[in-house]
Amino acid sequence: MGKVIAMAGKGGTGKTTLAALVIRYLQKKGRRPILAVDADPSSNLVDALGLTVNKSLGSAREDFFETKGNLPPGMTKETYLEMKLHEILVESPGLDLLVMGRPEGPGCYCYANNILRRHLDLLIKNYPFVVMDNEAGMEHLSRRTTQGVDYLLFLSDYSLKGIRTVGKIRELIDELNLSVKEKHLVVDRAPNGLDPIFSREVENLGLPLLGAIPEDGFITELEMRGKPLLELPDESPAVQAVDRMMGKMIKA
Asked: For residue 235, what is the DSSP state?
């Protein structure tokens, strides 16, 4: 069964960038195929990976609602939903992408949601690694699947407020009773050498610090040119930092 690497953190902390750099590392190491799951409606993981998406899991669910049971002859509801799931899967060499869309609301049809989640579980098992970019509230992570998370990366910017926000998100995740094997902290846009006050706040948080990602002009340049982050060069400071972190975290 594949390993699931999920991102957690408030908006604007660089979760999408981290997800893209983790995928870049896995590609470079030949850990393919990889399934990228964009579970943050406000993120741009699609752009960071240089892919094009037309539909999401949410739109597949809406398509099912609109049929009102009028399915093609000989097709069951479950078969129809499975077909829709495979239709929205964006496939590229060594990297596939699934966009979740907005999470289901309280009035959604439980049957459709349960079927989609079950087939998503089966889909995930086809990949050595699954990388998930989550929204701050973690709604999709709590609802999407019965499968647990192997590595949960909490991302914070370089501020005391950011670290304290990570603490609140961790409390939320603990309340969801998610199965998480390893939890790590990653600090984004960090200077060389962490301030002692900041380091004490990290220590009080109680999460192991996996590493820090420095400011990186290569990222800014690619984003201004509308290029995917997978095109970052090996000399990119952010790439080098994430490569070191992944080398420590993924032992086998």
From this structure: T
Are 189 and 214 in contact by the 8 Å Cβ rule? The answer is yes
CATH number, position 14: 3.40.50.300
**Residue 150 three-state SS:** strand
- Which residues have C-beta within 8 Å of that of residue 69, sequence separation ≥ 6? 77
Distances (CA, A) of 49 to 37, 43, 45, 87, 248: 11, 12, 6, 19, 24
The whole domain housing 185 covers: 3-249
Full DSSP string of 11-67: TTSSHHHHHHHHHHHHHHTT--SEEEEEE-TT--HHHHHT------HHHHHHHHHHH
* Among the listed residues 177, 170, 125, the one whose alpha carbon sits nearest the alpha carbon of residue 152: 170
Pairing relationship of beta strands 90-92 and 95-99 according to DSSP bridges: antiparallel
User: Residues 102-145: pLDDT tens digits?
Assistant: 665 544 556 666 777 777 788 888 999 999 998 765 655 655 45
Virtual torsion, Cα 124, 244, 208, 7, nearest 10 deg: -30
Over residues 20-43, the pLDDT tens digits come to 999 999 999 999 999 999 987 776
> How many domains are there within the chain?
1
